[in-house]
């Protein structure tokens, strides 16, 4: 080889060396996540570029401590690692973080290979149902199988390739098992696409065998170049627009159902308000969509569906056209398909799977683009003036009902119920009520909050009700606080959900992420107890007093003492007056503050609501069950006639 050839070879080798970097698979994964950025709207419309991933929740164990744990330590300054106390809970926190950021930022979660991984299944299902992004990184068994079987390994007698992580496949939007470091070059971009796509959005699982985490590979350096991630927002199709416009122009009594897709669409809430005002159309809000329109807007008829307002449900049942924007039209929204019986439904949704629900005319598009395009083409068309005015009047009447329900003092010698507590919480923020974010999930409270909470702006209402997952509340509150540290986060939770998952109180104290947690103690599962009796059943196994008990009876649980044991400040209050005083102390506190109050397990807000189909036994020895079955059959028959 001559001198020129030797020099060329040396230059080529140097170039090759400089264009790659040798990393373990775990190091490459973490470095890639840390490089992803997103442009978001900050104060007063200013755009800023921030990391796409706000951090990684981790509980280290066998299968992730040596590989991804070492990689996270290397990059802890640019990709924070948060230690939690329960794998399901930390995934809930990560999901809530993404929801609080309207899906524009997100988190990853890493666990060990066995119970840590399977603890993610419930949270993954929650994210899947609610169309929320979270990156799950469970450890996995050895690809080499040299030490097979390993500690915590789930062995399948018919398929040696199956591991505990396969339980995550049905509840992941994208699943991959990384069996070679080079797979990350394709798996990570695919995962990112799913996490940021408005139609595909949901949980992504990358199972990480522990030996592969530690393997080294020469990765292209440009794979780790900082990148601003786009969030594609589809425009409406011309043919679908024509059909939707024809339906709307023929309508006299149209109504909008605003779902979570309005909030997740950048500018969607503004587009919704402009559309409703220009065309005189009332708006009903789903659980996920609540807050898309301010509670006191003249055209906001309130919550819709089974947990809806009388105003919204009256209008929905009389409407001749329903424009369902960014909602998957689950049974609580449609009253088990009995609410929109006189209406054509137009499904405006970024996800075609959701757009076709309820036999709808489809308009597949981002909420903002769809509403803006429809409005421009509709021009001066508007709903009948009498319909718009009636909607305004019904909305005013409903707001008066809310005021009455949340301000009426309970009768003497009676326990307060949820509406009383909701009113006290909102009044405690009288100086800046729109700055509060309320967090809740399962039981009666979501129904009461959907009807009665006054959400003044997008993001002020954070209730997980797609999966109705008990235990989400406190963990979700932590995720919201990490996303919105400048806001007061108020978690409202029943005693049943508190007992299911409370460990992240300790995490919130450790991280300095202050929450206000209001525990409503009705001594059992009050919501299901009432449903049980509404279906003709006897009170059984729901309230503590109706459960099988040993010689010492049901425990008298001191929730305030328990919360103090986890590091929070806490107190139990005897009535609403004491609750108001305690909430003042909670707002002034420098750490998580838990306030406990006893509440009535039987009483709920009767105003509003709609039928919900819960199958009642055809045969029973109980008269109450037979009566409930007759009522059920009548509802089903009415739906079939409609």
UniProtKB/TrEMBL annotation:
Thiamine pyrophosphate enzyme TPP-binding domain residues: 442-596
Assigned EC number: 3.7.1.22
PROSITE patterns xref list: TPP_ENZYMES
InterPro entries linked to this entry: DHS-like_NAD/FAD-binding_dom, Myo_inos_IolD, THDP-binding, Thiamin_PyroP_enz_cen_dom, Thiamin_PyroP_enz_TPP-bd_dom, TPP-bd_CS, TPP_enz, TPP_enzyme_TPP-bd
GO MF annotations, alphabetized: 3D-(3,5/4)-trihydroxycyclohexane-1,2-dione hydrolase activity; acetolactate synthase activity; flavin adenine dinucleotide binding; magnesium ion binding; thiamine pyrophosphate binding
Assigned keywords, A-Z: Hydrolase, Thiamine pyrophosphate
EC category: hydrolase
Protein origin, superkingdom: Bacteria
One Gene Ontology biological process: L-valine biosynthetic process
Occurrences of domain Thiamine pyrophosphate enzyme N-terminal TPP-binding (ranges): 66-153
Cellular component GO terms, alphabetical: acetolactate synthase complex
Residue span(s) of domain Thiamine pyrophosphate enzyme central: 242-374
Pfam families: TPP_enzyme_C (PF02775), TPP_enzyme_M (PF00205), TPP_enzyme_N (PF02776)
NCBIfam families xrefs: myo_inos_iolD
Stated family: Belongs to the TPP enzyme family.
Name recorded for this polypeptide: 3D-(3,5/4)-trihydroxycyclohexane-1,2-dione acylhydrolase (Decyclizing)
Organism per entry: Trinickia fusca
